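Bug: token stream looks shifted between consecutive jobs. Job 1:
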Amino acid sequence: MKGIIKRALTGSLYVAIMVSAMICGPIVFAIVFSIIIILGILECNRLCNNGKQSTKESAIDIIGGLLMFLATFFSYFKTEYTINPIICYLPYIAIRFITQLYIKQGNSSSSLKSAALSQLYVALPITMLNTIYFSYGTPQLLLAGLIFIWMNDTGAYCVGSLIGKNRLFERISPKKSWEGFFGGMVFTILTGVAFCSYFSGYFGNMGLTNWIIYSILVSVFATWGDLIESMLKRAVGAKDSGNILPGHGGILDRIDSLLLVSIISAIFFYLIR
């Protein structure tokens, strides 16, 4: 019972923080996701190095991830001081390789692979949230994506627990079932229909067809995102990516679906705008 209460309280706090990031303005958005990048890269590097963590390399990778995210964030505020995000990020790439020359401990190849994964798996997808937040008319589209992910998780868990028999991806996640997958998709589609029917004014001119397509994309990519993180954890024999969230594990355990959904969302909203 104590564990359930702890998990519920942590989950409620996480939801409150994420919703606040979406609706309380760009400064809160930048602060929340900068913190998520820091924690996510720390956990990613720890997973890649079998539970061990090199402070120097992680610090540089965190700076690189923040450069990518914040340079893109500030690029949407057009001023005479605005710098191309790519120009801001390029020094990190050079510095990361040069620094590795002077680090005597550990395996250089593994360290650079860990750096690449931390940028591609954590920093880049979160940076893509900037595109959705600023470019498509309403930041609430990000909130819709989050709600879809949560509904997909809820539907997959409920249906899978009740009637799940056929394993979806047993090699990576033995508990996931095809029944749960389609149950999550149905929950997400129904949420999309509800958004179109009752909240369309808050989310731009999407239309029912686009809401349904987006619902299906979120369901599929959220599941893939979950499986990818499970694959990374299974490769090093880890149950959770970390322990910063009591009852839930690490930050990557909470945002694994969002990391892939952010990419497909940015592409989808670009194509339909």
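Job 2, same session, no restart:
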Amino acid sequence: MGSEKLEKSLGMKTIHQLGFVKLLDVMGDDEEVENSARISYGEGTRKVNQTRNLIRYLMRHKHTSPFEMCEVKFHLKLPIFIMRQLVRHRTANLNEYSGRYSVMSNEFYLPEGDYLAKQSTTNSQGRGEVLEQQGLLQFEFNRIYDGASMAYQVLLEHDLSREVARALLPVANYTECIWKIDLHNFFHFVKLRSDSHAQREIRDYADAMYELVKPNFPLCCEAFEDYIQGATTFSKQEMEVIKDNMSGSWTMSDYNLSERESKEFIEKLKKGDAE
């Protein structure tokens, strides 16, 4: 397709044999996030070694605009059915390979191993046990792919327009795109698409993208993992259960919380007590 024209890359990971993730460009770093936040305070407020603390404070209290000042840009090769999930993130900028201007590839996603699993009996969107007859299943995939690819070429040879001929290609057909997003919304993308409830194929892409971005924003990613990705929320009723059962001997230091984080945690637990 068009991948050979894009030589510049800050890192690349192969996904599912034929797909890939390339980090093309990064605008900003941890210091840029800090500088964007400190414009609110003016000169004379910065102290040595406060970059990490400030970034963690911003992430913890959902002050998102400093993270929006930084951007990451990717070149992705992925199946169309994964592309459809990617475009759901409407805060990103996107430009996709055109099947109207160009001939589509004859490359298709072929699941294998534990990706070939039964429909889950407890989750209408998930998978269950791994299926045993994998050779037969892959044969059926390839039979459809070969037939669709041949039919597509026949239609083109009969001078049918590319924009119409592509209609018969399966959603497993590979496409490519350039995808750019700010850091705050990238974290939101990773939070959703790396989650265990997301389809496994897009989790593979999200995980690879995050691994490429992380070295460029180590402090931001650390804060994201601690306060967003590895965190959860509780309902009002669940908070009552927690407060009613907080007894025994324990200290905040047992859980690696700073003094400020400890105070904020206690404030969360006390929220609603005056009602």
